[in-house]
Amino acid sequence: MEPYLDFLLAMPLFAGLTGNQLKQLLRCCNARFETLEETSLIWWDNHPEGVTCLTIVLEGQMRIFQEDWRGNRIILGTMTKGLFFNDAVFYHIRERMPFLCEIPSGSTFLVLDNTKLLRPCAQNCLFHWEFQRNMVMALLEQQAGMFMKIGCLSQRTTRAKLMTLFSFVSAKERSRSFTLPMNRQELADELSVDRTGISKELSLMQKEGLIRCERNRIELLG
Prior knowledge:
The chain is of the alpha+beta class. Helices cover 43% and strands 24% of the residues.
């Protein structure tokens, strides 16, 4: 708990809570820390116990994707450090849209009991209500990320998809220079295009003076 206390207090999810209040809230919600020893590929149909959990990413990430019968992968979303997801949502979605969750080794999560979070606690703590309000606002913020994803995928060309993504990330980071949290293959999967096409388009955009690109570090020019 202690190594992550400052990080958790800085999250919008726990805004307004003191260290002691956060500790009490986590005890109330039967919080536990989980670290994966090796890369895990989770098929949510086989993980029913996750229905009652709210999970916060503390280290590493979780990549959510679909894969067709030929092995082609479409990235639906990436949960990075500081983001959270509700397993109950995954449980209900999976009946209509089967998907996989890939979690690299060393990833660490804080898991909280949904039933404790969404009901008034026995002590009727004011900060418990504050947390619930924060959670609603945080969900709206993460929904904005979904709209960004839709905005990128709705573009017709690889260049348009890249420029839309770069514009969103630049606005979020408030900088024309930023680092993408993914490699070329992951970027291709994220935008549902071929990796070769991504590399070719990035090279052309550099030659035309639109961007400066070094690995996953991007700088918007002009």
